[in-house]
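Can anyone check this?
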Amino acid sequence: MSAGNSAKNPHRVAIRRLKNKLRLGDATASNKIAATYRELGNFRRAFQWWRRTAGPQDGDAWLEVGYCLQYGIGTRRDPTAAIRAYRRAIKTYYTTMYGCEEAQYHLAVALLDRCDTRCRREVERLLSRAAEDGDYPEAADLLEQVGVKRPSRICRCRRGLARRLGGKTHCLLHRRPGARPIWKNCANGPTSRSPPERCRSWRRMETRTLSSRWDT
């Protein structure tokens, strides 16, 4: 048995046990299965399990679904579906305050990517709510930028997610030099883990965001 397989075996054993718990009615098992697949680097399976978990009893899973759809992690990139998922995360009663704030932040980023000035008030409202406790500096910083004309420092990191799990992979501000976003079935053709400069949709999205001007 190779060293790589040996390292992954504990995760696969854990998945089998969690699936058994799920069959016995453990409501938290499916979310844990998704997180374990992410640990293994199997983002497609992780997305499938988060999509299965997301619902009225688990709003935080909608946050995971939204982020995957926004950046094409384990699925095709679909910004419109990502926006719907974030809205569901915010509206679902069983969403943690921490998860709700992050959903508000990433929904604001997704709306900024649309470069639609009609969304300005909603973006400001979302960022204000995410930043009101004083524990989300990225939201406060982006709110200040929206107050002027041109947001230029948009953090796309996952809040509290380890770098090794992709928490900073899709953020141009904070990812390591040479790190590659985890692209899965991008609509414009790049293969998994293609560099951002080869993905036309990503380059256009960033260019629009950095050059967008708000009506004052």
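Reply from J.R.: I decoded it. Residues 44-211 form one domain.
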